[in-house]
DNA sequence: GTAGGGTTAG
């Protein structure tokens, strides 16, 4: 290849041409094969940048790269996603006469695969004569194609089998990422059978890989079966199972497994902690989360920015926004995810003003917002009633940041307008939005109709949402309650009948409180707790006190059984178990808190000198001295 | 002396 045909950056910076008049000093340090040895070391340690720098020095010194040089250096540019450097290296390979070297060919295929330049990868492969296509070449190409061109990858796999190219465990490992969505679970299971038949399953890496594939497909029992059959579990095995449980929302299982892992003498790493912290966040298990933080402080991962973000999220979701903020403020380098997490945290707690302020600070810090952070800031605005501010952000998305709003963003804005009573504008937005409105968009409108008692629009929104999400029970309950509040008992009964006919059952509402490191779970009307008797007595006492205080006088429409809703039982239990009068009690609830219970907790917070924090399905409510942080705007 | 793969946050 001539010098003229090389990409322009070849001459300016980046990699330089082999230079015969190099400095003698550099050449004296590394001579001959020493270069390759050094490159191998750097590549092995993952110091890819250093490897590329060394390669440049090598060229300057006048040394010639050979078939041993290129695999390391191609891998380095692949790992760093340096497309231009990679293409230059391809030129060097051709120039150096190494294009027929199998190791180099494989490295090139792999590199182009990582760049997602799949045609280039295919081209290198196609130019290898049929008889010289080794297992590794196939493996490299399959791994490259698997995510974007699944059928193509499967064809190659079939070709390997018809042409009797020996399979290797890595061939299988390359195929599995194509099966990590539920749609392709059958393919994954078929591969699993094949793997068992060929004996590859005894390869620990293969087993780990199938374990995580099943977990990602939501087939958690199959994942656990693979896990149970692995005789020697490494850290990665434990991590795959812990992450699998975490991704499937099996949080108590995560914490149990974490304990088992420690008992078996395997030390956790940052991947483990991420899974465990996200489960603590879901469970609201702050005490355990704090223990995990202490463990992290005692090991080398304490400063890992991933983990800091997980910690921020955990504390925010456990109700401790103060601690979340301290960790955020202490982070030397805040990433977009850090900002998103803390903004989302303030939004969840109804502190929209702070969320908005942080968003602006983020922009000043030169961080470019993405779609996710916009979802957070829009939600924060809608929870705090910052309608104009929210609309401003929504418009800026497209106009300033060229981000096309997704359905998620539209549902935030419908919520924003709807809560503010601007139902006509919300409806107008839905009619004119360029993306197809999905369930949550109509759902947001339905929710707004409940707040503003608009039965007619509610019926329209309900018909739309039920078409899109016929099994989502929440929408039926919402319309039924809208009818009840409007005094339309017939309508309410009709919806209840519809639910019955469609075989839809209400999710049981449950709440729990953490006490002495253990979660105490309550469902509505629950009498299974060992202290059930005392709990109900306490509840009655609180009811009476609230009545005496005149707090409950507006309770003409007490919903069925709301007097024994799970959050009330949890609060009664917490009050029985707490000695200090100025305590903060956190209750986690799976559904949204109902209006009756909201009023009840407000009353109780006035009677007893405790602060109550209730995390419901959408947000936090901080009750103190008779009022709630949501200002009854939820 | 060389290649191909698996677990991670908002």
TrEMBL record:
Residues 560-634 form the DYW domain. One of its GO terms (molecular function) is zinc ion binding. PPR repeats lie at residues 31-65, 234-268, 304-334, 335-369. Belongs to the PPR family. PCMP-H subfamily. This is Pentatricopeptide repeat superfamily protein. Keywords: Repeat. It comes from the Eukaryota. One of its GO terms (biological process) is RNA modification.
């Amino acid at each position: 290849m001539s010098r003229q045909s090389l990409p322009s950056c070849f001459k300016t910076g980046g990699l330089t041409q082999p230079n015969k008049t190099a400095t003698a000093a550099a050449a004296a340090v590394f001579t001959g094969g020493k270069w390759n040895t050094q490159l191998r070391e750097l590549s092995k340690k993952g110091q890819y940048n250093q490897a590329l720098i060394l390669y440049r020095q090598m060229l300057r010194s006048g040394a010639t790269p050979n078939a041993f040089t290129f695999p390391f250096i191609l891998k380095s540019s692949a790992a760093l996603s340096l497309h231009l450097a990679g293409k230059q290296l391809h030129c060097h390979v051709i120039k150096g006469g190494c294009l027929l070297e199998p190791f180099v060919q494989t490295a090139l295929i792999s590199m182009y695969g990582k760049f997602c330049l799949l045609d280039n990868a295919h081209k290198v492969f196609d130019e290898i004569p049929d008889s010289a296509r080794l297992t590794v070449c196939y493996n490299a190409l399959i791994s490259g194609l698997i995510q974007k061109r699944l059928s193509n990858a499967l064809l190659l796999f079939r070709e390997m089998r018809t042409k009797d190219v020996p399979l290797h465990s890595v061939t299988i490992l390359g195929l599995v990422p194509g099966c990590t969505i539920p749609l392709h679970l059958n393919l994954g299971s078929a591969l699993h059978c094949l793997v068992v038949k060929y004996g590859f399953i005894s390869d620990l890496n293969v087993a780990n890989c199938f374990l995580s594939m099943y977990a990602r497909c939501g087939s958690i029992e199959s994942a656990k079966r693979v896990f149970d059959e692995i005789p020697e579990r490494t850290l990665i095995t434990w991590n795959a199972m812990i992450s699998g449980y975490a991704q499937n929302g099996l949080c108590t299982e995560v914490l149990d497994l974490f304990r088992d892992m420690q008992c078996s003498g395997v030390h956790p790493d940052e991947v483990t902690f991420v899974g465990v912290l996200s489960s603590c966040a879901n469970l609201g298990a702050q005490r355990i989360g704090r223990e995990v933080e202490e463990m992290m402080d005692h090991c080398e991962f304490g400063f890992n920015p991933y983990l800091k973000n997980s910690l921020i999220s955990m504390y925010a979701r456990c109700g401790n926004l103060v601690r979340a903020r301290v960790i955020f403020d202490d982070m030397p380098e805040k990433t977009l995810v850090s900002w998103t997490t803390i903004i989302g945290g303030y939004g969840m707690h109804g502190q929209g003003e702070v969320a908005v302020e942080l968003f602006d600070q983020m922009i000043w810090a030169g961080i470019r917002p993405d779609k996710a952070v916009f979802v957070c800031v829009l939600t924060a605005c809608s929870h705090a009633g910052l309608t104009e501010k929210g609309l401003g952000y929504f418009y800026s998305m497209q106009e300033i940041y060229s981000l096309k709003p997704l359905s998620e963003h539209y549902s935030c804005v419908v919520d924003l307008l709807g809560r503010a009573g601007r139902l006509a504008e919300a409806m107008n937005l839905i009619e004119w939005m360029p993306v197809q409105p999905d369930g949550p968009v109509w759902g947001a409108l339905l929710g707004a109709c409940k707040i503003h008692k608009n039965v007619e629009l509610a019926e329209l929104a309900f018909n739309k949402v039920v078409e899109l999400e016929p099994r989502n029970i929440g929408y039926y309950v919402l319309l039924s309650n809208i009818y009840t509040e409007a005094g339309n008992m017939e309508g309410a009964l009709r919806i209840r009948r519809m639910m019955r006919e469609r075989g839809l059952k209400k999710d049981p509402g449950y709440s729990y409180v953490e006490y002495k490191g253990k979660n105490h779970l309550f469902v509505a009307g629950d009498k299974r707790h060992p202290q059930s008797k005392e709990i109900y007595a306490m509840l009655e006492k609180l009811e009476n006190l609230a009545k005496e205080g005149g707090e409950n006088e507006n309770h003409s429409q007490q919903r069925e059984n709301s007097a024994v809703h799970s959050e009330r039982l949890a609060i009664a239990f917490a009050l029985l178990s707490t000695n200090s009068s100025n305590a903060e009690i956190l209750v986690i609830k799976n559904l949204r808190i109902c209006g009756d219970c909201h009023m009840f907790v407000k009353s109780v917070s006035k009677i007893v000198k405790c602060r109550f924090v209730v995390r419901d399905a959408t947000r936090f409510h901080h009750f103190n001295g008779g009022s709630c942080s949501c200002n009854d705007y939820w």
